[in-house]
Amino acid sequence: MTALVTLESKADLSKQVTMTDADFQLGEDAQSSQLEVGDQVTLGDLLNLLLVYSANDAAMAIARTVGGSVDTFVQMMNTEAKKLGMTGTNFVNPSGLHDDKHYTTPYDIYLMLNRAYQDYPDFSKIASQSQYQTSVTGTEGQSTFLSTTTDEYLDGTYSLPSNVQILASKTGTTDEAGSCLALVVQNGYGVPFIAIVTGADTKDTLYGDMSKLLRLTNTDPDAASSSTGTTSSSTDAASSSTESVSASSQTGESVTASSVSG
């Protein structure tokens, strides 16, 4: 949602942003980029770090830059959630780090990701990268650093099912939520799907169940109704014409996919 609100705001992605100490007040074990207090980067760099590397410091800097304050930006996030019909969602921070009052559902993630993919080509361009090089103006002059995606399909750790292409990806991991992955993919018949796995207890489980799901989506659309598996009631509610499939899971996490709908 942080990326979606930023793109919807039409903020100038070339704007220079100076990192502050508050951007790094994230709690123990929170993922941060290689940026330091006083470094200057563009808003576009921060958006790339957010989507490619899941950098929480980038999320905080984006929020105060686009919203004027983090609190105002969070209000913008919740306003957008209501517009999209995300009735099972409430945001209290721009990073997604755990808070009992910060929550969402797989169906709401679908709504959010569908909007970002459909309406903002820059989202897919950024969120499908395997790595991103950031240019920094720091206290000692110009420098760059390379960040590798947190998606372990895109970095080659796990193999995608054949004939499946990632169009956009976002990971998310906390102790409380487990390992989560939301993808926009295109199957071998050119049909885009949104596939979501949440609550996995290990990365092997996460990517194993996602691969099961992606294999289910990789079917001839003319035969989909008879070959894609079990209909998921939560995603089917998106549209009467939205195809929806689910894969079995033995670990209790949520595993679902739905075709992209306009």
Report on this structure:
The chain is an alpha+beta fold. It has two domains: 2-148, 3-Layer(aba) Sandwich (Beta-lactamase), CATH 3.40.710.10; 165-259, no CATH class. The protein has nine helices and nine strands. The protein has helices at residues 2-8, 43-53, 56-67, 70-83, 106-119, 121-127, 203-217, 224-227, 233-236; strands at residues 16-18, 40-42, 131-138, 141-148, 165-174, 178-186, 192-200, 244-246, 254-259. Strand 5 and strand 6 (178-186) form a beta hairpin. It starts with a helix and ends with a strand.
First CA to last CA: what distance? 18 Å
Name the structural class. alpha+beta
CATH class call of the largest domain: Alpha Beta
Number of domains: 2
Please give the order of strands in the largest beta sheet.
5-6-7-9-8
Overall residue-averaged pLDDT value: 89
Number of helices: 9
* Cα gyration radius (Å): 18 Å
CATH superfamily placement of the largest domain: DD-peptidase/beta-lactamase superfamily
The sequence of SSEs as H and E is: HEEHHHHHEEEEEHHHEE
CATH architecture of the largest domain: 3-Layer(aba) Sandwich
CATH fold description of the largest domain: Beta-lactamase
Unreliable parts: 224-244, 246-251
Largest sheet: 5 strands, antiparallel
What is the β-strand count?
A: 9
